């Protein structure tokens, strides 16, 4: 029997069977983490989680060397599996302990980062055991890159937000990024010159230059009527003002963080209001997307529904900011500009519907 053939039967699937219960234990622990730890427990500081992540990373280095080098006996490989998953289990329990007092957004960041470490660890050991049992001659080249994904997942732990306020602010910032992308796409629409109405007195700092995003030199699409183009321009203005409003909300949340001195526990009694504020921002982004989809298929009922929800979103944000004890002038000015754009769009839709009804009456007479 060749050496390759001998490697293929080494362990006879014994390592796969040994690995399976370790995978299942970790899977069960991850499932437990779907709910935040009870408030009565002592919270694990995130710095402890990061330190345990470093231990997992070092164990991954050891595993990568063991499984891609000159392989020892099956019992030694079993010891490596057991040692790694014991460390991984401790890491996950610490992650779960860090969710004490975490709201939905912070909890999501924590569990997502933990799952990244788990998924990369599973990939490493599944590949290592499979390569060993199949006698794969390429294991020395295919295992190290997978080990690198564990390092990256552990390194990413250092970027996880440590408080509810930071987590919510970061989530709102991601909404801003999405709205920027929507606005960029909408400004590429062939609707002629920029909207005649200024979207807001507050400046929106776009990632791309005005020259890149300007649509003033684009030919008007023959598929859109003059009335539809007017509505499309107003939808662009609404999108721009929605971005301004959410950005100002991010600044407000940032001011809360600064006023607390970035200390753990500060503003933690306001988590529900901040989560509601984030929910309003999410809903606004969703409705702006709905309006964007209406540019070509301009359904008045769908646009009116989106506008109504956007008004509700603005009202909800004003309420939550008030509950948080804030009355930021720039934020409320942004909301006012947003409402003005919505009003202009609402009027244009009503005028367009009235014209259609008038034309219909004339054609039937």
Automatic annotation (TrEMBL):
Say which domain of life the source belongs to.
Eukaryota
> What is the protein name for this chain?
Uncharacterized protein
Q: What is the lineage of its organism?
A: Eukaryota, Viridiplantae, Streptophyta, Embryophyta, Tracheophyta
């Amino acid at each position: 029997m060749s050496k390759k053939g001998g490697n293929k039967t080494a362990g006879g699937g014994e390592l796969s069977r040994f690995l399976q219960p370790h995978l299942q234990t970790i899977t069960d622990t991850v499932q437990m983490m779907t709910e935040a730890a009870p408030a009565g427990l002592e919270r694990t500081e995130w710095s402890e989680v990061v330190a345990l992540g470093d231990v997992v990373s070092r164990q991954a280095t050891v595993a990568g060397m063991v499984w891609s080098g000159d392989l020892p006996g099956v019992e030694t490989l079993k010891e490596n599996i057991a040692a790694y998953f014991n460390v991984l289990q401790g890491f996950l329990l610490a992650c779960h302990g860090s969710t004490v007092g975490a709201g939905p957004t912070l909890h999501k960041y924590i569990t997502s980062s933990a799952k990244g470490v788990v998924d990369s660890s599973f990939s490493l050991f599944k590949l290592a055991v499979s390569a060993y049992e199949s006698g794969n001659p390429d294991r020395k080249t295919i295992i190290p890159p997978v080990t690198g994904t564990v390092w990256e997942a552990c390194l990413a732990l250092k970027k996880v937000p440590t408080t509810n306020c930071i987590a919510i602010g970061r989530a709102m910032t991601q909404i801003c990024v999405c709205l920027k992308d929507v606005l960029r796409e909408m400004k590429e629409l062939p609707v002629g010159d920029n909207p005649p109405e200024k979207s807001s007195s507050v400046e929106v700092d776009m990632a791309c230059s005005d020259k890149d995003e300007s649509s003033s030199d684009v030919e008007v699409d023959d598929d859109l009527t003059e009335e539809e183009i007017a509505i499309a321009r107003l939808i662009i203005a609404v999108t721009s003002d929605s971005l301004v409003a959410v950005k100002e909300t991010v600044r407000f949340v940032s001011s809360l963080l600064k006023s607390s001195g970035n200390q753990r526990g500060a503003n933690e009694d306001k988590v529900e209001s901040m989560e509601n504020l984030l929910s309003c921002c999410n809903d606004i982004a969703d409705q702006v997307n709905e309006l964007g989809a209406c540019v070509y298929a301009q359904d008045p009922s769908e646009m009116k529904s989106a506008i109504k929800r956007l008004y509700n979103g603005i009202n909800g944000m004003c309420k939550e900011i008030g509950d948080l004890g804030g009355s930021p002038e720039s934020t409320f000015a942004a909301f006012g500009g947003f409402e003005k754009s919505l009003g202009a769009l609402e009027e244009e839709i009503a005028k367009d519907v009235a014209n259609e009804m008038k034309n219909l009456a004339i054609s039937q007479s």
